[in-house]
Specification:
The protein is an alpha+beta fold and about 350 residues long. The chain has a domain of about 90 residues: ApbE-like superfamily (T-fold), CATH 1.10.3980. The chain contains nine helices and 17 strands. Helix 3 packs parallel to helix 7, helix 6 packs antiparallel against helix 7 and helix 7 runs antiparallel to helix 8.
Length: about 350
């Protein structure tokens, strides 16, 4: 699972149009600001005259605030924080948004045999990818104790009325591995409601595109080369009405006593993953779905991940690193997204 080091705290910063270097009727508007411990970038092309720069910015702020209030672990009044703090196994009322995110999380967890699991946070912390890094690796007895309140099977969700429930009162959830993708989907739907047809949304690497760019072509999105070297493209995808995301093992790790510890913890083994998969890239219609699946496939590794993606018809590319060299394999569905 993805670690919790992607801080989930939205900074609502509204910028005037002049801050983006765009006027009210520029052919392309660009918006960018800090959010969720990362940044967002939004580009809008050929907005209708009924939509202003300020309308777009207000819509962005409203959506990000909605997600923050519901799903942030870094504000005590969020739904997730209050659920985690509640030492109860009773149904806990939540918003429809959080119920949707938890429901999709549970579906991907079941379909990936537990490779994606939003209850894995305590294991991630135990391995040193939380707020503090322990001076020793967790012992088998420590991991066994933690496992009593980790596991997607110990979490329930219902839609009507929207609520979630723990089977163990100590269980906690961390939706960092799926909520950014959900935020992208919500924002894309809001844009469509405004009448926007051509735009791209990027929240911390979770990308969705609609229509075409300023040149009238599909949006061309670079896939970062998964190494510790300065950022450089490994390849490109072309998007019109789809999203793309990446989950990888590069940059987020530490080395102790000669061993490399990945930030991705396998919920099934209670330990950081050990494989040669440097990154997995997933494309598809729902950014929330591919956000979760990218993490699940990364946990599974190149071989098992590819087999599952192929069987489920998921558009995915797997990038391995062997002896300092990168190689890739992709499902048939992913080939449709490769930029020509």
């Amino acid at each position: 699972m993805r670690s919790t080091n992607r801080v989930f705290h939205v900074l609502l910063i509204s910028f005037l149009a002049i801050a983006y270097g765009c006027s009210a009727r520029d052919p392309e508007w660009t918006f960018s600001a800090p959010t969720m411990g990362t940044t967002y970038t939004v580009k809008v092309v050929e907005a209708p005259r009924s939509v202003t720069v300020h309308t777009v910015q207000r819509t962005i702020d409203e959506v990000l605030n909605l997600i923050d209030v519901s799903m942030s672990q870094y504000r005590s009044d969020s739904e997730v924080s209050r659920f985690n703090a509640a030492r109860s196994t009773a149904w806990f009322p939540v918003s429809d948004d959080l119920a949707r995110v938890v429901k999709k999380s549970q579906e991907v967890a079941a379909q990936s045999n537990g490779a994606f699991d939003i209850t894995v946070g305590p294991l991630v912390n135990a391995w040193g990818f939380g707020s503090q890094r322990p001076d020793h690796s967790p012992s088998s007895s420590e991991l066994q104790a933690i496992s009593a309140y980790v596991g997607f099977q110990k979490l329930e969700v219902r839609a009507e009325p929207a609520a979630i429930r723990k089977q163990n009162a100590e269980l906690q959830i961390d939706v960092n591995g799926i909520a950014p993708g959900y935020a992208v989907d919500v924002l894309a739907a809001k844009f469509a409601h405004l009448g926007l047809k051509n735009f791209v949304i990027d929240i911390g690497g979770e990308v969705a595109a609609r229509g075409h760019n300023a040149a009238g072509q599909p949006w061309r999105i670079a896939i970062e080369r998964p190494t510790d070297q300065p950022a450089a493209p490994f390849g490109f995808v072309a998007l019109q009405d789809a999203g793309v995301t990446t989950s990888g093992e590069y940059r987020h790790y530490y080395i102790k006593d000669g061993r490399r510890y990945s930030h991705t913890v396998d919920p099934r083994t209670f330990a950081p993953v050990q494989h040669d998969l440097a990154a997995v890239v997933v494309a598809g219609a729902s950014t929330m779905d591919i956000d979760a699946w990218a993490t699940a496939l990364n946990v599974l590794g190149a071989d098992a991940g590819f087999a599952l993606a192929r069987d489920r018809g998921i558009a995915a590319m797997f990038v391995r690193e062997r002896n300092g060299k990168l190689s890739s394999t992709m499902t048939q569905q992913f080939r449709a997204y490769v930029a020509k």
